[in-house]
Specification:
Glutaredoxin; five-stranded mixed sheet; alpha/beta; 128 residues; 5 helices
Length: 128
């Protein structure tokens, strides 16, 4: 943390982990000890662009409780996108212990994700 950030009490923003291959997906999502929120997006999708700051805020606010990852369908291995059976962007998929818990299509506000995390993962330790 820089001097200015420490003086102002601001933490650096945490970026979602970018996943492009099946091997990265296996390692970062299926093999994760934390629950993982995976944002599957497209660069030409307006609702996807609205989700960018939401995912950054979730990754920052819930660091140590959940992991946030992103998959750009234009840059990812086609086999990865096929494996996930994503038919529209944005699609957000929630994983816990390597298993899919659920998915939603379209934009959701930060409050939706925060409430979902608090309800679904309330028993997990919060580092703050």
């Amino acid at each position: 943390m820089g001097l200015l950030s420490s003086l102002l009490g601001r933490s650096p923003k945490i970026q979602p982990t970018s996943i492009r291959s099946l091997a990265e997906f296996q390692d970062q999502v299926v093999g994760s000890e934390l629950p993982v929120i995976v944002d599957v997006w497209s660069p030409t999708c307006a609702p996807c662009k609205k989700l960018v700051p939401v995912m950054i805020d979730l990754a920052t606010k819930h660091d140590g409780k959940v992991r946030v990852a992103e998959i750009d369908v234009a840059a990812a291995e086609p086999a990865l996108v096929r494996t996930l059976s994503v038919q529209a962007t944005p699609t957000v998929i929630i994983y816990d212990a390597g298993e899919e818990m659920g998915r939603v299509r379209g934009f959701r506000p930060p409050s939706w994700f925060n409430q979902m995390i608090e309800v679904e993962f309330a028993d997990r330790g919060d580092p703050s």
